[in-house]
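hey so u asked for the seq, here:
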Amino acid sequence: MSTYSVTATSKPGGEAHVDVFDRSLRFDAGAERDLIHPGPAELLCAALAACLLKNTERYSHILPFRYEAARVRVEAERQEAPPLFTRFTYRLEVVTDEPPRRVELLHRNVRRYGTVGSTLSLAAEVTGEIIAMEAFDE
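ran it, structure tokens below
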């Protein structure tokens, strides 16, 4: 069994940071939404995005699957009462010349074996798509 650990600290007013290994990331822990620093919702979306990208890399070795770059956009829908996330959607873009069936194979593995995505899907709907591209649009 694997374990993971972080330490987070906050001060009155919401100034906060989380320490992971030898890095520190500032985040918003205030009562009101701060549009400068990520809050818990953005961090949760970031965790899903990181999981999708990490598994893209992982399965590029296992399958193998050639790609030059990957990026993902994650959105979360939250209901107010009771406050909880009801849906996460993502768009995973991969710069690759692999055929469509291989792109779908990658997506199936990324979706099926992602720890964060699998965990979130127990509490909310998690859906997404993968798009093969020749290059990223700027």
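Residues 40-62 form the longest helix (23 residues). The chain has two domains: 1-38, 40-133.
lmk if thats what u needed
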